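Page 37, continued from 36.
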């Protein structure tokens, strides 16, 4: 709630549980558009709490879709994930790429499995109604206050600790994998603009990537964060977690056709995010 305290006088805030159908239905009264983003995120959570990831993912999709239909909501915009591709067959990846769960016993795929189920429900569950649905597949959104289950805040905080609050100007820095793994990061401001655009112009039952086409290696990301923090790092490579994706970068031609243009450069967004985490952790330590 603290993230929206400054805007409370401009919105109606309802605190509830997306797994409670009555609370969801009540919240959807007199609503024109639903943006369904509720899900457990963060790779650590996929491995450690797959049962909760699936519960919130699947129940959340069913209950919000049912509430949308019962409340005569006009449109429903849902965020899926680039994780549904696991290891894409081509880069940049288009929305026509196959989606897959390569190992049903690996708890990591609780997240992508829940997202695949969400997509199936979004397309087919309300298909015979007037509800307009749009699916967004985000690619690595990031920004201040995004939690600790993501690589950028994890790297920034670990560098701060290993350098003894930046007193050491050179440190050894262990990572998972070779560091040659890639992602394409999208700053939160651009992500929000894209979601609003999909609500306005996205075609019914269509799927759109939302992100950037700037592919970054994890080792390059680590060095860039270190540069922002004014330290030097010596990368120590490690094993990649089972099920980890080695390369990911979307084609955003489809959403660009609606007018989407990301405006925040990677360096700009990274500096804002890293500085937020470093100063926030210092405030927490002092209090």
């Amino acid at each position: 709630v603290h993230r929206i305290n400054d805007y409370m006088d401009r919105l109606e805030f309802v605190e509830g549980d997306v797994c409670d159908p009555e609370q969801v239905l009540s919240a959807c009264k007199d609503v024109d558009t639903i943006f369904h983003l509720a899900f457990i995120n963060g790779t650590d959570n996929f491995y450690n709490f797959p049962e909760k990831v699936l519960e919130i993912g699947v129940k959340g999709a069913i209950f919000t879709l049912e509430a949308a239909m019962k409340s005569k909501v006009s449109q429903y915009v849902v965020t899926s994930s680039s994780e549904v591709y696991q290891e894409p067959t081509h880069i940049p990846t288009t929305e026509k790429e196959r989606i897959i769960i390569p190992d049903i016993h690996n708890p990591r795929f609780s997240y992508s499995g829940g997202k695949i189920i969400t997509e199936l429900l979004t397309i087919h569950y309300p298909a015979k109604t007037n509800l307009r649905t749009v699916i967004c597949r985000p690619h690595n959104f990031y920004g201040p206050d995004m939690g600790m289950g993501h690589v950028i805040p994890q790297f920034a905080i670990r560098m701060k600790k290993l350098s003894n609050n930046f007193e050491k100007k050179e440190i050894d820095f262990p990572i998972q994998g070779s560091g040659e793994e890639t992602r394409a990061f999208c700053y939160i401001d651009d992500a929000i603009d894209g979601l609003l655009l999909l609500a306005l112009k996205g075609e019914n039952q269509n799927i759109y990537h939302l992100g950037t086409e700037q592919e970054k290696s994890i080792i390059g990301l680590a060095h860039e964060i270190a540069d922002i923090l004014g330290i030097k790092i010596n990368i120590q490579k490690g094993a990649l977690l089972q099920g980890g994706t080695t390369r990911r970068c979307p084609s955003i031609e489809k959403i660009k056709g609606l007018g989407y243009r990301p405006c925040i450069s990677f360096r700009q967004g990274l500096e804002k995010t890293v500085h937020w985490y470093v100063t926030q952790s210092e405030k927490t330590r002092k209090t």
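Strands lie at 33-36, 75-79, 132-138, 141-142, 170-174, 182-184, 186-187, 206-210, 215-217, 232-236. Flag for discussion at group meeting. The radius of gyration is 20 Å.
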